[in-house]
Design goal:
240 residues; alpha/beta; globular; 9 helices; Rossmann fold; single chain
Length: 240
């Protein structure tokens, strides 16, 4: 029987790689993009995907997406979409992405979609995957909102897993913790990035192994360092 997956933010970066690799595994892929132009371009490249426009910073778009999928069993949902807006609270600068928009995309919308689509995943005895970041564990000073969002998503996934266990539900919850990945979001920032292809492969492998915490790339070392020297990684990142 063909399995169905929903991937948010599927038009580029890690999301586009997840779309590609799950198509190769013969999944029925449903994917979202934030605007009609990006979705139209993606549809031309991969017409076999069920593409949906959904701006996750807009509540009505999130609700419309859930309504469109009301009768769809979902074996897997990957909350992949994200945005990172560096900002300096000491200055009075204005930024392209507001705190509200950033938090809606990174944190609020994944939580809302989890509630609105829970029965879709429950009926398939499927899995939720929350894509977080090593910055949820060791935040950096230049992206306070993004770090807070990812930390919140990490905690939400843990609480959700506990609720599911408490209620004896046959649903899995995974957290995929990413290092720095070479995407549009990180262009011009950082070194030692991994490719979106590698990130997608490692996420998928962790899901297949039923890992609760999928440590992608260098986050394996981050977690070991944190265990041995609890304050060192955070201290280094906050100075970065």
């Amino acid at each position: 029987m063909t399995k169905t997956i929903l991937i948010t933010g599927g038009t580029r970066g890690i999301g586009a790689q997840l779309v590609e690799q799950y198509l190769q595994k013969n999944y029925q892929v449903i994917a979202t993009g934030s605007n009609p132009n990006s979705v139209d371009q993606a549809r031309k490249l991969k017409p076999q995907v069920h593409w949906l426009v959904c701006d996750l910073s807009v509540l009505s778009d999130v609700e419309t997406l859930a309504n469109k999928l009301e009768a769809t069993k979902l074996d897997l949902v990957i909350h992949n979409a994200g945005v990172q807006q560096p900002r300096n609270y000491v200055s009075s600068a204005l930024y392209e992405v507001t705190e509200h928009q950033e938090t809606m995309i990174n944190l609020t919308s994944p939580m809302l979609l989890t509630r609105l689509l829970f029965k879709n995943v429950q009926s398939a005895q499927g899995a939720w995957v929350f894509v977080t970041s090593g910055l949820a564990i060791a935040p950096k000073q230049s992206s306070a909102v993004y770090c807070a969002n990812k930390a919140g998503l990490r905690v939400f996934s843990k609480s959700l897993r506990a609720q599911i266990t408490q209620n004896n539900q046959q649903v899995r919850v995974c957290e995929a913790i990413l290092p720095l990945v070479d995407t549009d979001m990180t262009r011009g920032r950082g070194r030692g990035k991994i490719s979106p292809e590698q990130a997608a492969r490692e996420i998928m492998a962790g899901i297949e192994r039923h890992e609760k915490e999928i440590r992608v790339g260098k986050t394996k070392w981050l977690m070991r360092l944190r265990r041995l020297f609890p304050n060192l990684a955070e201290s280094v990142m906050l100075r970065a």
